[in-house]
Amino acid sequence: MTRILYYHPQSNFSRKIRILLTEKKVDFQLQEVNLRDKPPSFLEISPIAKVPVFMDEDGTIIWDSSLIAEYIEEKYPQPAFYPSNFKERFSCRKWEELADTLGDNIISLWLMNLTNNVNPSFFRTRLENSINRLIPFFENQLSQTEYLLGGDTWSMADISALCSFGYYDLRLNEDWKLTYPHLKIWFEKLHKIESVKSTIPPKMF
Question: In the chain, which segments carry CATH 1.20.1050.10?
């Protein structure tokens, strides 16, 4: 059976897994999902009705990008994107979760803007404040280290974060690069990597 990644080309969480699979040189096929009209066949394998979903060659199905990343790391361990040391691995997961939270907030804000949602401005302001509160954590860390975990190589924390910031570029605005110089250097450096360049989301709807 062929490995399949059910994805959407603009999804930051799908991009996260595409980069990881590519870096690990795991062969897979892409199956694009129409997020506006999800087919019943997709909903049967994705109880949470979200992309990405990974189907391994033995038929194993995993949903949620963090669970997929952990599964891929365990089954295809080289090159490693999570540290083997317990505390360092926990730190990586912490940054990954923070990056995914940022991505979720950006998605929610974009959807609210897209639909001209009539909810009170309180909800929009809360999302904007959350995004603006989270970004400085990444800037502060990268003012001290080359990558989010330190050391001389990137990790799953960096992959998750760059995908969320890439989605921020796509959907909302690029001004954060002017405000956060260390993030800008890190972001542009990682985008020189082929797996990152080749997964830049297209500007469609």
Answer: 86-197
